[in-house]
Amino acid sequence: MTAALASLPLALSKNDIATYISALFVVYTIMILLNILISFVPRMPYSPTLRAVLDFITESTDPYLNVFRSFMRPIGGGGFAFDLSPILALIVLGLAEGIVVGALR
């Protein structure tokens, strides 16, 4: 039994932490993309479970997206306005991932 315990790593390496942080960035990127898709659907069918998931996605991504929406207004007007701020937000998120994960590797 001691031979099995000897083969287990005792601590996380910097590469393990970088992989974990990179995965967090990927999950947040997917959540932003889901938020974009949600905005294209005008009326979602009501389901308590679906509403909880959609609210979680919008409440966790909107604060980050609102930073970019504050200085980048939608193009167009009325109900057909096209919001380009998520594109800029994804670019900045990708750059931040590259810097943070690159510093750990």
Total number of helices: 4
The average pLDDT score comes to 88
The count of DSSP E runs of length 2 or more, i.e. the number of strands, is 0
Rg (CA only) = 19 Å
Uncertain regions: pLDDT < 50 for 5+ in a row? Answer: none
The major sheet is characterized as:
none
The fraction of residues assigned to DSSP E strands is: under 5%
Shape: elongated
Commentary on this structure:
By secondary structure, the chain is an all-alpha fold. It has one domain. It is built from 4 helices and no strands. Helix 2 packs across helix 3 (48-69), helix 2 (14-40) packs antiparallel against helix 4 (85-104) and helix 3 packs across helix 4. It is elongated and about 65 Å long. The two termini are 33 Å apart.
Concise account of the structure shown:
The chain has 105 residues and is an all-alpha fold. It has 4 helices and no strands.
Provide key terms for this protein.
105 residues, mainly alpha, 4 helices, 70% helix, elongated
Topology:
Layout: H1 2-6, H2 14-40, H3 48-69, H4 85-104
